[in-house]
């Protein structure tokens, strides 16, 4: 989604005029060490991260540079409020075993592999070259010599996992209610839904692809890939340390996104509360939104800005001067008409027009080649986290789907909904353990 902040089809969440931007942090890439922390050492790193979080009230899982690792263990999963990395490999799996014990075993194996991969290590004990020459390697090897690159792996469970196969039906959260059908969407079932998703984010695309490839390899015979998506050029900032990026329509995207520094907003609108297995978790919505790039590129600048309700260059709300200025929806121009029209994206997506609904957006641009007519198959892979989609994503998207002028240039072709459990506490824990207790 885009706001003149540029949230293509889902924007303007958490208006805070005082936010500033800083240059994004970078760092020289060091060679990946082929040795690393043992389970006890990684657990110690996790314990330190948890202690730091308790002082700051909210997790600030981040690397010092783009080559460094992000802590894996903690109260919440990394890859949510972690400063958004540059690259994405997202995958949705279907579970093909009907044995609960095998699913639990897979989650344990995946967690152990994820703990290693996110720290810049190989997926298995013997790695890509250290095992028996007669056996398949424990790691596929394409990330040998590469640093951790800020890799995070975030898991979620789809509504379809809570059927009769694994005895989980009674544990399906109310907030994991199926999304309604929105006006105008053209969803393709083959690239929607899924029993389990894994979001891999990193600053190096090869590191992200390597992680997903190895999880799929470990899951052979228990899960199958339903669909996947590569993304580049993040379309939102999740930290004030990050500059605001642009989407493929050329507008700044994510200006007023919730940030990891917004402790109160995160408590109120991001993390699930209560005493069930989702406490400390959150809910993820994904939407693949294709843009009609060629039509958009022939649209006048004034019309583009009117559609978003923002200046294309500076990102300021129309009628204001700076990107982080609060939109004034009542301000009128010399002609007596509102600067920000009734069908402008920034107005329709703003919390003040959606019952104070807030999302933490974490989307990416995508280009999947071209179609048979020579048009770019490109757009936004939208990802948003929230405490409850019924009171956050659903009302905002309903408003946009009915009224947004941007709808002439976009179409939703894929959708996903997932319950993301809380973080893994230590080396004895695993993804979703409380769900299967």
From TrEMBL:
Domain of life, per lineage? Bacteria
For this protein, the record's PROSITE patterns field holds: DYP_PEROXIDASE, TAT
InterPro entries from the UniProt entry: Dimeric_a/b-barrel, Dyp_perox_C, Dyp_perox_N, Dyp_peroxidase, EfeB/EfeN, TAT_signal
Q: Name the Enzyme Commission number(s) assigned to this protein.
A: 1.11.1.-
Q: Does the keyword tRNA processing apply?
A: no
Molecular function GO labels: peroxidase activity
Q: Which reaction does it catalyse?
A: heme b + 2 H(+) = protoporphyrin IX + Fe(2+)
Which residue ranges does the record assign to the Dyp-type peroxidase N-terminal domain? Answer: 77-232
**The keyword Lyase is assigned to this record:** yes
User: Which residue spans traverse the membrane?
Assistant: 34-56
Q: Where in the cell? A: Cell envelope
Q: Which cofactor does it need?
A: heme b
Q: How is the cofactor bound?
A: Binds 1 heme b (iron(II)-protoporphyrin IX) group non-covalently per subunit.
Chain spans, region Disordered: 1-28
Keywords, A to Z? Answer: Heme, Iron, Lyase, Membrane, Metal-binding, Oxidoreductase, Peroxidase, Signal, Transmembrane, Transmembrane helix
Which residues are in the Dyp-type peroxidase C-terminal domain?
Answer: 244-424
User: What functional role does this protein have?
Assistant: Involved in the recovery of exogenous heme iron. Extracts iron from heme while preserving the protoporphyrin ring intact.
Record-linked PANTHER family: DEFERROCHELATASE (PTHR30521:SF4), DEFERROCHELATASE/PEROXIDASE (PTHR30521)
Q: Family per UniProt?
A: Belongs to the DyP-type peroxidase family.
Q: What's the protein name?
A: Deferrochelatase
């Amino acid at each position: 989604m885009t706001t003149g902040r540029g949230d293509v089809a889902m924007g303007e969440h958490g208006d805070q005029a005082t936010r500033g931007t800083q240059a994004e942090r970078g760092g020289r890439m060091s060679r990946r060490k082929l040795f690393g922390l043992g389970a006890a050492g990684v657990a110690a790193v996790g314990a330190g991260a948890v202690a730091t979080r308790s002082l700051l009230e909210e997790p600030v899982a981040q690397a010092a540079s783009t080559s460094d690792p992000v802590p894996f263990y903690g109260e919440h999963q990394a890859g949510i409020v972690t400063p958004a990395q540059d690259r994405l490999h997202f995958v949705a799996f279907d579970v093909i075993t009907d044995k609960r014990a095998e699913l639990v075993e897979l989650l344990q194996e995946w967690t152990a592999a994820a703990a290693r991969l996110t720290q810049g290590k190989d997926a298995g004990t013997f790695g890509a070259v250290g095992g028996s020459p007669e056996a398949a390697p424990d790691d596929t090897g394409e990330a040998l010599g590469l640093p951790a690159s800020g890799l995070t792996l975030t898991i979620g469970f789809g509504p379809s996992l809570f059927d009769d196969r694994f005895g989980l039906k009674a544990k399906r959260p109310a907030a994991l209610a199926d999304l309604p059908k929105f006006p105008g969407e053209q969803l393709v079932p083959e690239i929607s839904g899924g029993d389990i998703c894994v979001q891999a984010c990193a600053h190096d695309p090869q590191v992200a692809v390597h992680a997903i490839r190895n999880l799929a390899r470990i899951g052979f015979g228990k899960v199958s890939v339903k669909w996947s998506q590569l993304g580049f050029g993040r379309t939102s900032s999740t930290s004030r340390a990050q500059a605001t990026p642009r989407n493929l329509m050329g507008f700044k995207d994510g200006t007023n996104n919730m940030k990891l520094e917004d402790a109160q907003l995160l408590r109120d609108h991001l993390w699930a509360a209560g005493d069930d297995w989702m406490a400390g978790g959150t809910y993820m919505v994904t939407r693949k939104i294709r843009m009609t790039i060629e039509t958009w590129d022939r649209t006048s600048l004034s019309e583009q800005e009117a559609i978003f309700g923002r200046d294309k260059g500076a990102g300021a709300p129309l009628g204001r001067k700076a990107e982080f200025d609060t939109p004034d929806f009542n301000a009128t121009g010399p002609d007596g008409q509102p600067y920000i029209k009734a069908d402008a994206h920034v107005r329709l997506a703003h919390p003040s027009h959606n019952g104070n609904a807030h999302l933490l957006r974490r989307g990416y641009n995508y280009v999947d080649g071209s179609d048979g007519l020579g048009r770019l198959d490109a757009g936004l892979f939208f990802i948003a986290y929230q405490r409850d989609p019924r009171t956050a994503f659903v009302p905002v998207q309903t408003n946009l789907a009915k009224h947004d002028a941007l709808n002439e240039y976009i179409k939703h072709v894929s959708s996903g909904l997932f319950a993301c459990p809380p973080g893994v506490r230590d080396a004895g824990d695993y993804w979703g353990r409380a769900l299967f207790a």
